[in-house]
């Protein structure tokens, strides 16, 4: 990608090389303009009237996002009903996760016989920290609240190469989990195997926050889909669910939810997609969304006219409990309209450049960076297979990650010009299951970083690494 894209679409005055697109990526000018324009309109006419004026454009946001992830083929359903606009990827993930597991639980409790004893949540080894804590607490609390069901969270082991974990789901092991051939470590001497029918949900992080590996999301989707065909459930009953955390891949990779075969997918606005902070979205396949009971509702998600009372006790909701169509049930009434409009334009911008082009450019820059960094004495690349995208994580021997980040931001004189670089650090807590317990550095490049910027970055890191050895 030539510099002209960057010149055309970035706000003037950026004075550092931005290598933190996995954290936050600078918004294109038109996104900033849309957010500012709408905020100004709100100041003039009030937020509600401004939303009425923008209603058509707001509806378009759903279409743009569904096109971005390949959900928008014409079909019986309106693709807009597969998207919920929320505030972050974590909000999207938790809305989907809690609704999915709670609906599964209710489904099981409604069955009088046989009372299944165990329900399992499978999570990838590089699962994002927020997802892990939510899953573990849910399993703990719901096993105590309800004596009939015991929830358990199991990690899907990653493959190993050169004696190190890759961070990628080991596909044969995952298959063994679905086929009833995965041994569970028990205290007793007899080996028991994971009962595939007990698996309620598979949670996969597509690209982890702390490395550039790309999990085989499509292959996993195919295996789950085969499993669901083999264990065909009766109509209206939930299949084995597949929830994909695509926070780092949306806006960076060319995604197609039909190929991925996920039931739910979450994403954020501010990272590779270059939308405003405080935005995110959730995709839920229409037929799944329609049978999910949202874990949190307001009167917009679940409109109700009458609350049934008994004296002063509010004992129920009158009429049939109905939720908004499809994924809209995961939204609340109040929202930041300006930001949502910005998010839609960010998706349009990505689509106009082309997701195939963006993915290719990000990968190419990631590889370039990994080659250059790998050649520096004292720089250790994290994960064996990094990188298959724009994210590269590493450590500098003898220098604390936060100190490296600080020095890069302070800058280095190259020729007669000061070059400052913005990277981020990933704390061990961001991926609690992968055994990485130290802070590591993350440089994440996007399609508009130039080879020259990356070369300057590597030259600067070499200076830091050399100094630490002296
Ligand atoms: C893989 C992954 N999932 C989820 C998140 C959370 O995103 P948000 O902060 O928008 O909730 C992140 C953020 O870094 C992430 O890297």
TrEMBL record:
Residues 189-421 form the Aminotransferase class V domain. SUPFAM superfamilies: PLP-dependent transferases. Pfam families: Aminotran_5. This is Aminotransferase class V domain-containing protein.
């Amino acid at each position: 990608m030539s510099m002209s894209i960057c010149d055309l679409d970035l706000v003037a005055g950026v004075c550092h090389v931005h290598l933190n697109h996995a954290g936050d990526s600078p918004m294109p000018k038109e996104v900033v303009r849309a957010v500012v324009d709408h905020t100004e309109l709100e100041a003039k006419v009030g937020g509600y009237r401004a939303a009425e004026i923008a209603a058509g454009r707001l509806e378009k946001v759903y279409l743009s996002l569904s096109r971005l992830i390949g959900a928008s083929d014409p079909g019986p359903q309106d693709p807009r009903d597969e998207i919920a606009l929320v505030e972050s990827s974590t909000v999207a993930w938790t809305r989907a996760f809690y609704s999915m597991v709670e609906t599964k639980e209710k489904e099981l409790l409604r069955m009088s016989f046989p009372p299944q004893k165990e329900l399992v949540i499978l999570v990838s080894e590089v699962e994002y920290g927020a997802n892990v804590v939510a899953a573990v607490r849910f399993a703990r609390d719901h096993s105590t609240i309800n004596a009939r069901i015991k929830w358990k969270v199991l990690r899907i082991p990653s493959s190993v190469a050169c004696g190190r974990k890759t961070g990628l789901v080991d596909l044969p092991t995952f298959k063994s989990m679905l086929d009833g051939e995965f041994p569970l470590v028990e205290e007793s001497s007899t080996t028991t195997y994971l009962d595939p029918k007990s698996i309620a949900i598979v949670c996969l992080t597509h690209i982890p926050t702390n490395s550039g590996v790309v999990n085989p999301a499509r292959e996993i989707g195919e295996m789950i889909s085969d499993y669901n065909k083999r264990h065909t459930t009766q109509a209206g009953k939930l299949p084995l669910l597949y929830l994909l955390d695509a926070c780092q891949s949306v806006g960076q990779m060319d995604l197609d939810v039909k190929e991925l075969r996920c039931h739910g997918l979450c994403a954020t606005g501010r990272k590779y997609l270059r939308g405003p902070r405080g935005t995110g979205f959730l995709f839920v396949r229409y037929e799944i969304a329609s049978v999910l009971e949202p874990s949190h509702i307001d009167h917009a998600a679940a409109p109700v006219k009458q609350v049934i009372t008994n004296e002063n006790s509010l004992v129920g909701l009158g009429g049939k409990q109905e939720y908004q169509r499809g994924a809209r049930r995961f939204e609340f009434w109040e929202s930041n309209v300006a930001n949502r409009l910005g998010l839609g334009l960010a998706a349009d911008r990505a689509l106009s450049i082309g997701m195939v082009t963006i993915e290719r450019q990000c990968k190419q820059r990631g590889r370039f960076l990994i080659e250059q960094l790998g050649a520096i004495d004292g720089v250790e690349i994290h994960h064996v297979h990094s990188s298959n995208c724009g994210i590269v994580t590493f450590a500098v021997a003898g220098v604390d990650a936060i100190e490296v980040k600080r020095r890069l931001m302070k800058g280095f004189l190259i020729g007669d010009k000061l070059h400052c670089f913005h990277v981020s650090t990933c704390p061990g807590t961001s991926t609690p299951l992968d055994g990485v317990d130290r802070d590591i550095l993350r440089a994440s490049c996007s399609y508009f970083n130039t080879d020259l910027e990356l070369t300057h970055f590597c030259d600067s890191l070499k200076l830091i690494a050399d100094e630490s050895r002296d």
